[in-house]
Amino acid sequence: MSKEIKTNLTRNYYTENRIKFYDEGFINALAANAVETTRSQPAGIPEGKEAAVRYIEKGPSGVAEESGVSYESILTNPTENNSMAENASEVRFYSLINDNREITISTGEVTLAENLKPGTLSEPSTLGNGDYDIVFSDGNKLLYDYKLTLNNSGSYIFVISESGNSYTVTELSGAVPECFAESSFVRFIQTVENAPSMDIYIDGIAVINGIAYNEVSAFIGIPQGVHRITVAAAATSIVYADESFNFTQYSVNNLFITLNGKSGYRLILLTEENACIKV
Q1: Does residue 109 or residue 67 have the better pLDDT?
Q2: For residues 258 and 96, is the Cβ–Cβ distance under 8 A?
Q3: This model's pTM is above 0.90
Q4: CA distance 253 to 225
Q5: CA distance 211 to 65
């Protein structure tokens, strides 16, 4: 089971004609609140609506090959589909495999995703409550056998990535955060085994201290627009990755720290457009 890193930044806004807007205090809060690895309340998440990645697990051995692939994917909001049956869940799959291999995901004799390319989100499938063996394979080669138990209806994205000679499957789930006009959310997932602890900066402001393998952050609320994301070795000035991303209004974003081939790191952004709850 993964550890969950929580943040405690304060959301600041003002009200005009019953519409709430962020003010400059929101950015000031980022500067004043570097995030430790144990906090009581995630950034921008109202009490009782906490949302974070739930599990990251290590899979069987595989081969990591050199690759310079970098990509960004845009998702649609699964919560907008109200036709989901009671006691059933919507599941989708996303691949962060380091090369251009296409993978297949199945359970029993049912194929959930076929020929899934890196950087591609699968079409949704519906599964009822129960226990499942979710098999990730590359042709006839087993990459990972993920044990899944579904007890309540919900929406899930399962992300497979390579880390050294093994595979990692990350389950993205949880409550959808609330957001205001001109705002978005981002959380960070560290998928690299044996990597040192890392600090994360947004526009030069430290927001997470010491994220490690098998750890994920809660959502951090940020204003919409382009933000510079920097990942450095914890408590040092050694930069591992430094990229800018555009975070659109009302979007929910997942930023993965992954291997860039056999050495080095890269950031991959997975965005759900119009996914947060507008208040």
Answers
A1: 109
A2: yes
A3: no
A4: 12
A5: 25
